[in-house]
Design goal:
The chain has about 180 residues and is mainly beta. The chain folds into two domains: about 90 residues, Immunoglobulin-like; about 80 residues, Immunoglobulins (Immunoglobulin-like, Sandwich). Helix content is about 0%, strand content about 55%. The strands form four sheets. Strands 4-3-2-7-8 form a five-stranded antiparallel beta sheet, with no helix packed on it. It has a four-stranded antiparallel beta sheet with strand order 9-10-13-12, with no helix packed on it. A hairpin with a 5-residue loop joins strand 12 and strand 13. GO terms for molecular function: signaling receptor activity. It comes from Ceyx cyanopectus (Indigo-banded kingfisher).
């Protein structure tokens, strides 16, 4: 999320037509056409953040600027050339790294929150002990995970929260 993404479409020497067909998870389909013989580009129902990333004769790539959850979906490049018809499909899934927050609650228990990540983060503790987890889904597709460390048996007040996520792992320590 937040960076640019370039999707590559195969380039053939005798292009007749290049079409990107985009089916977003939410919203209307978007289509981009390029006719090299007329040097004509046409866009139908696409946001300003989705556009061609090429100038002939380079690859007919597609660029998505400031990628967000709204860009998730299927992106198919179809190429008509004298050699035949070809296609390549991408399934774009956007990863959103969670914000890590660590604090002590009113009972001096460490509390770790991995806020607004996509997909949901996994939380573990060092040292291992008893903990409770709670997940909350948000309208934008992100998930917040809250974990409370409650290892009363050992009396441990120094704990490290470890957040595992496909967009990167994080950890923080706290003394309560």
């Amino acid at each position: 999320a937040g960076s640019s993404c370039v999707l590559i479409c195969p380039l053939y020497s005798n292009l007749i037509l290049v079409t990107w067909k985009i089916r977003l998870k939410a919203g209307e389909p978007c289509i981009l056409y390029y006719r090299p013989d007329q040097n004509r580009i046409k866009t139908t129902n696409c946001s300003d953040s989705i556009n061609w990333n090429f100038r002939p004769p380079r690859d007919p790539a597609l660029e998505i600027q400031q990628v967000g959850i709204v860009h998730e979906g299927h992106y198919t490049c179809e190429v008509a050339a004298k050699e035949g018809n070809f296609h390549k499909t991408y399934n774009l899934m956007v990863l959103v790294p969670p914000r890590l927050m660590l604090y002590c609650d009113e009972h001096r228990n460490p509390v770790c929150e991995a806020a607004a990540g996509k997909p949901a983060a996994q939380i573990s503790w060092a040292p291992e002990g008893n903990c409770t987890h709670k997940e909350e889904g948000h309208d934008n597709g992100t998930v917040s995970v809250l974990s409370r460390f409650t290892d009363y048996n050992t009396g441990v007040v120094n704990a490290t929260c470890v957040v595992s996520h496909p967009a990167g792992n994080q950890s923080k320590s706290i003394v309560c």
